[in-house]
Structure formats: C-alpha cells, structure tokens
TrEMBL record:
Coiled coil: none
Lineage, broadest ranks: Bacteria, Bacillati, Bacillota, Clostridia, Lachnospirales
One GO MF term: sequence-specific DNA binding
Keywords: DNA-binding, Transcription, Transcription regulation
Keyword Transferase: no
Name the UniProt record assigns to this protein: Helix-turn-helix domain-containing protein
PROSITE patterns: HTH_ARAC_FAMILY_1, HTH_ARAC_FAMILY_2
Residue ranges constituting the HTH araC/xylS-type domain according to the UniProt record: 188-286, 302-403
Source taxon at top rank: Bacteria
Length: 410
C-alpha cells in the first residue's frame, strides 16, 4: 500500500504538565476543549476517553478522528495536539497512567504481543456498544474513589488502570492485525523505534540507516512532528523510564541507569538533572512526599508487586496464600508481612477486594445471574459472595445492579 499519510508539522514548541503533575496521580480529570491546544508532550502516560463532541487529535504528526467513544493511550514519546470542531466542543475524561504504581512494563520484559500493541499499534481506538459502556463504567468507578486518599482506595484505582491497559492492549492487538499494510511516515516509525530500543546503543545515524534515510533528514522530521531532534527524543525517553524505576523501593541508581540505557551513572546523573531540574535522588524524595489530596504510598518493592500481580492475574481461581507462596517461591510469612505493612490488610482481604471489584463490573456490564458471577470471580458459592459483597457495598449484588443500571429488571 503506498504511503498516503504525510506528517503534520507542529506549530510552536511543546508544552508540558497540562494533564500531568504530582497532584494528578490517581485522580480523574475532566476537561472541555472548544478550540485547539498547543503541542503537548507529557512526561507521563495518559488514558483519554471522549465523552462527547467532535474534532481531531494529531499524534507525532499523524491526525486521527477524535469523537464520542474514542479511547486513547498516550505515552511520553508522543507529542499531540487536540482540536475541537467550532460548534461541537470536546468533553474528555483523563487519567494519568502511573507506571510505577500500575505496570510491570518499565521493569519487566513484556510479551511480544504487548510490545506490538503498545509500541506498534495505534494509540487510538474507537469503542461502541458494550465495549464503550465497559470503559465508561470503569471511569465512573474510578471517580467514585476520588474522595478517598488511602491505600485501599489507591489499590482500587490501580486495578482500574490495569483494566484500562489490559482492555486497550487486547483491542490494539486486533486492530494492529487488521492494519498491517498501512505505511507510516518516517517520524512516526522512528519515534516508535526509539521508544522500544532506548536501552540499546542507538545513534541518529544507525536509526536513519534502518529507515534508509540520512541522519539530517531524520532529525528534521523528528523536529517537524515533536519539536525535538534525535538526541533530545532519546534522552527524554530514557529519563522518563528512569523516573518510573526510581520510585521502586529496591532499585539502586546503578541499576536504574543501566536499565534506562545510560552509558554510566555519571551520564545518567548529568542528563537526568538537565531534563528534570533535579538529581535522581532529589526527584525520588519529591515524588514520595505526599501532596495535597494525593496518595503516593504505594511505591513498592518488586517482591510485593509480584505478589499483587499474582493476585490480580489469578483472582478468578480459588487461590490462597499457600498457592501464591508456592508459585512465587516466597514464604507465607513474608507475603503476610509485605501486604500488612503496605495496606494494613491481609492477603485474603486483598484477594477478596479484587474479586468483588471485578464482580461489580460484571453486574453493571452483563446480564449474568449472580451465581454465575460468583463462580466467575472465584467464590465457591453465591452465599459467600453475597455476604462479602454486602460487607463492602452495604447492599446485595442484585440491589447494586438495580441501583446502578437505572432500576432495570435483571
């Protein structure tokens, strides 16, 4: 298929911290856009849902329709501009996807499908019907927790962000398979390549050679779509990866530097301070200090992340702490101490909470009988499920479904 997509140049230098910032972690934002934004290049990842309105979003020089049901996952290597039609303002719901709290992608080797979905497939998908309703319900659930700033509420929000990413990846993989023949502009392809090979010893010359062009042409194209040349683009990606890794409890500076692609700790320190205005340790200290109405206490060790990930991945199975202990080769006492120290709860409490949140989503988005839902999320019988559900929500599963679905007779 011939390349019919041409890069759209940005107008002006990119701005930062429009939708991100220390006070916006784990918070739902709602924005109305009635004109056009300046070019934006955030240092965090964002989920954006268009609730109403019509317009366009231009990402790394490529324009996409932006209308009701559009769901976007933007990364820190994206420079974007949002434009609303003059007579149809855009109403947006936005969440910062906080990688250190929500994802293993920064520290673990993701599966090939995940790499394809995030790095290759489009950052924009169009949702309709039950798929759109599911994401809306998750945004609504996220918003309900906005008045709480405690570990339990934060855990729920992290789980919702994880569901966003899982949902997006599944749909992006399918969309990517249908879009294999599309030919993208040089700037788009080169930015994705830099974003997925940041840890390697790449140069403008080596990347340009890969795309059968010159380093000067590559730099000109990157500046055209993002305002940054190759070196600046690569350093931004590496600094943003390092920023996430710094917030794990057991990550040494030498490991963070190596993981992020820096040639040495000295280079890491110098470049990090140049791009953030602070040293790595100063950045860590600032980010771990809780701001107003912000909970940042969930920065955790890899070991605890392993425990929580196992709980999330296995919530529909009748697992208990013994199963987790065997699967992760950790003692039960270590697991208990880790969970209790961070969340003030038992491992069983965390597992039950995960199951109940998934059950609530099924009650809102499906017509499955309560018994089927109970079994689906890992309860042995409907009685124990209903009892646990009532304890959390102060109502039965049937009452919850009726109340939140407008009194429908299910």
């Amino acid at each position: 298929m011939p390349n019919t997509i041409k890069s759209r140049p940005i107008c002006g230098s990119p701005v930062h911290s429009v939708f991100t910032g220390k006070d916006k972690y784990l918070r739902l934002q709602k924005h109305t856009i009635s004109d056009i934004t300046p070019p934006i290049c955030e240092n965090e990842s964002l989920f954006i849902l268009v609730n109403s309105g019509r317009g366009t979003i231009t990402i790394n020089g490529v324009e996409f329709p932006f209308e009701q049901g559009t769901f976007v996952w933007l990364q820190s290597y994206h420079t974007f501009t949002i434009k609303a039609d003059s007579d149809d303002p855009l109403e947006l719901s936005i969440c910062v996807y906080d990688y250190p709290l929500s994802s293993f992608l920064a520290l673990r080797e993701p599966s090939p499908d995940t790499v394809d979905a995030i790095m290759v497939a489009l950052p924009v998908i169009r949702l309709e019907g039950e798929y759109l309703q599911k994401i809306r319900d998750l945004y609504d659930e996220f918003e309900k927790e906005d008045s709480c700033f405690d570990p339990g509420s934060s855990l729920i929000k992290v789980s919702i962000l994880g569901q966003f990413s899982y949902f997006f990846i599944k749909h992006s993989i399918r969309q990517n398979q249908e879009d294999q023949s599309r030919d993208w502009p040089l700037g788009w392809q080169a930015t994705l390549y830099i974003g997925s090979h940041f840890a390697e010893d790449i140069t403008a010359e080596s990347v340009a050679e890969r795309f059968s062009t010159s380093a000067s042409t590559l730099n000109r194209e990157l500046r055209n779509i993002s305002g940054y040349n190759f070196a600046h683009t690569l350093n931004r990606v590496r600094v943003n990866i390092a920023s996430g890794a710094l917030l794990y409890e057991d990550m040494s500076l030498s490991y963070v530097a190596e993981h992020s692609g820096f040639s040495s700790e000295v280079a890491f320190y110098r470049i990090f301070k140049k791009y953030t205005g602070t040293t790595p340790l100063e950045y860590r200290k600032q980010m771990l200090e809780s701001g107003e109405k912000v909970y940042r206490g969930m920065i955790m060790s890899q070991m605890l992340m392993d425990v929580l990930n196992h709980s999330y991945a296995s919530f529909s199975s009748p697992i208990d702490i013994k199963d987790t202990s065997k699967s992760l080769y950790l003692s039960e006492s270590v697991i208990r101490e880790l969970v209790q120290e961070k969340f003030g709860a038992s491992y069983k409490d965390i597992t039950v909470l995960t199951r109940l949140r998934h059950a609530a989503a099924l009650l809102l988005t499906t017509n499955l009988p309560v018994l089927d839902i109970a079994v689906n999320v890992g309860f042995n019988c409907s009685r124990s499920f209903s009892r646990a559900f009532h304890k959390l929500y102060q109502m039965t599963p049937g009452e919850y479904r009726s109340l939140n679905r407008g009194g429908e007779n299910q």
